[in-house]
């Protein structure tokens, strides 16, 4: 690990085509569009089945099956097709992008469905009784209440994609995975451990940023209700600490 830190502190590794900023940019260039494409596919489906309840079992089961398919297997399957379609892109962007999109779809779809279904049915029925149309109910009622859960799904998908996009280096894509593959091939422990540190750091940074976004989109009333519920759950039979908690701390 110290070899990795020393490698990161070398100024020569922060410039050029193989420099750290370039590799981070390549990594994000495959990760962010993949999550956006997955969201464009999964969110409408998840919201629709969450609102109507139709096709939920099929969609959720297909999403769960998709989770079981290894991303590297998807790359290998797509690789010959993409080479035949466009030799210039076949060994580069296409297999990795397809695999990352398929990886991101299940958590986004399932949490979108779960978020919409978590909205109190009585509130939805009251909105219908007030004359709101189905589209208005989704946009003005269900989506705002489900947004924290939906963002949580996007957060999970993004972290998974950032961590897994390193596999793209196996089939000649760049990104931070290049340091891992080259470190193994050259028996260069410094490069290898530096790649591990960079991937972990980027994943943690993305996780922290999206966790903050998830908190920001959570309505204040929902946060207050969750806080009150947490206080009630932590309270024991004899006050805030509870009798058992007092004995346990003694």
Explain what the structure shows.
- This protein is mainly α and 250 residues long.
- The protein has helices at residues 2-9, 20-52, 56-68, 71-85, 87-90, 93-117, 121-129, 134-164, 177-185, 189-217, 220-234, 243-249.
- It has a single domain, classed as MetI-like (MetI-like fold, Orthogonal Bundle).
- It has 12 helices and no strands.
- Helix 2 packs parallel to helix 6, helix 2 (20-52) packs antiparallel against helix 8 (134-164) and helix 3 (56-68) runs antiparallel to helix 6.
- It is elongated, with a radius of gyration of 23 Å.
- The chain starts with a helix and ends with a helix.
- The model is unreliable at 237-250 (pLDDT under 50).
**Number of strand elements:** 0
Looking at the overall shape, the CATH architecture is: Orthogonal Bundle
SSE string, helix = H, strand = E? HHHHHHHHHHHH
CATH superfamily: MetI-like
Features:
MetI-like fold; elongated; 250 residues; single chain; mainly alpha; disordered C terminus
Summary?
The chain is mainly α and 250 residues long. It has 12 helices and no strands. It has one domain: MetI-like fold (Orthogonal Bundle), CATH 1.10.3720.10.
SSE layout and pairings?
Blueprint (H helix, E strand, L loop, with lengths): L1 H8 L10 H33 L3 H13 L2 H15 L1 H4 L2 H25 L3 H9 L4 H31 L12 H9 L3 H29 L2 H15 L8 H7 L1
Helix pairs in contact: 1-10, 2-6, 2-8, 3-6, 4-6, 6-8, 8-10, 9-10
